[in-house]
Records
---
Amino acid sequence: MCFQRVTLNTLGGRGAGGFHGLRQRGDPCQLWREHVLASDLVDPHSLIVADFTGDGLPDICVIEMDFTDYPQMILFVNRGGGRFETHVVDEGAGSHDARLIHINDTLAIVGKPFTGKHLGEVHLWMLRRQHH
Ligand SMILES: [Ca+2]
């Protein structure tokens, strides 16, 4: 799974954060059990749920903000049964409140930095075409 970041053009809480997953066991009205998918993220202010892998299971994409030198875009690939694989799919440009869009029937993510060296840019992350 590879994303390609494209810089579009211009537009005009510090601290480590964790990203937690909740797994439902039986009755959703009872207490839920928490699974920590990541615990060392820096201001992960974008969270997008969509089936990026095309297997019917919703995956999770989280993007850190630019309060670190190399903010990461992380894809948690849903393998079913509450199991997720963690993949860093881009780093170097963070985002704040990124959104999912469709381009030619393909999922993509668009976002803009909150601060930092890329402030004023808009980034479009598109899935790279696999060449076989
Ligand atoms: Ca999936």
---
Amino acid sequence: MACFDMHNHILFGIDDGASLEEISHSMVAEAAAQGITHLVCTPHFDHEYEQVKTDCMERLQVLQSQAPQSLTLLLGLEVYLTSKLPQLFDNERIWTLNNSRYMLIELPMRRFPEYTFDVLAELIKRGVTPIIAHPERNQQLREQPVLAQQLAELGCRFQLNSSSIVGRHGDGIQQIAQQFLKLGLYSCLGSDAHNESTRPIIMQEAKQVIDSDTFAYFMNQSEKIVRDEPIELCAYRAPIAKKQSLFAKLFKK
Ligand SMILES: [Fe+2]
């Protein structure tokens, strides 16, 4: 079965991912060893790092030329949400996953800016389908999962970090990732690997904790994403918050 890593900072020297070419080559070997057959390179595009597509492609080709035959590298981008995204898209400064309709978009970790829905709607109007990177890592989505439902209703899809589901970002993030997973929020999986040590490629370990049907579903949807084919809508519904009784409110510890 094809195995897709949809989010990875493997390209050397262009963001806070692999700092040296040797590190990228080691990560390529590790990806192949873990059975990954397709790896989408998604360097950051944000206030700190702006990318030029030709530079990214050059690095990708260097890595691909020395990669095992079983592994195909594809180009994507992890685009940080700002109000300027529609303009950046119009000016061809940002791009999608393997030139498809799908764009990987990162929300701020702690905030949910008020322009979020408007910006994403503008991109959708332009034919882009946003894929929200690791929603379980966004504090506002953890606290108000109804926001994730509203994003899904707008037409967004969601990518799970393998590091979150295996607990590398702590219990709180792991638990919400498990809940999102159970309720069908995610369409695909990515390692979000940055290096070999502190943020390594995790695929086999994630495969052990995600049920096999869901894992196969992620791979099937990922294949469609990179081929620019339509994927399933996200049918996630946020759990209804239980109302506290007056008694519980009065005697809350
Ligand atoms: Fe990332």
